[in-house]
Specification:
By secondary structure, the chain is an alpha+beta fold. The protein has one helix and three strands, in the order H-E-E-E.
Length: 77
């Protein structure tokens, strides 16, 4: 999908400057870093507010979750 391609391109840009190894795993596999698109109340205590307002939030590296508001209009440009 275009979302996966954009995210992969962003990680590839970071990896030219930092010594990390990043690979995609299955959605139910254990991972150190997890990206998720969610709506309103989801898997944490920080619900999204729909279009406008909060676009995303993330947690400290030991947690590794990064959530994007699925109701936002995400574009490539």
């Amino acid at each position: 999908s275009s979302t996966k391609r954009i995210i992969r391109e962003a990680f590839d840009a970071w990896l030219t400057h930092i010594p990390l190894q990043i690979e995609e795993v299955c959605s139910t596999c254990k991972a150190d870093f997890v990206l998720d698109f969610a709506r309103e109340q989801h898997t944490d205590t920080y619900p999204f507010d729909g279009v406008g307002g909060t676009l995303a939030h993330a947690f400290f590296p030991e947690d590794g979750r990064v959530h994007f508001d699925k109701d936002e209009k995400w574009t490539e440009k």
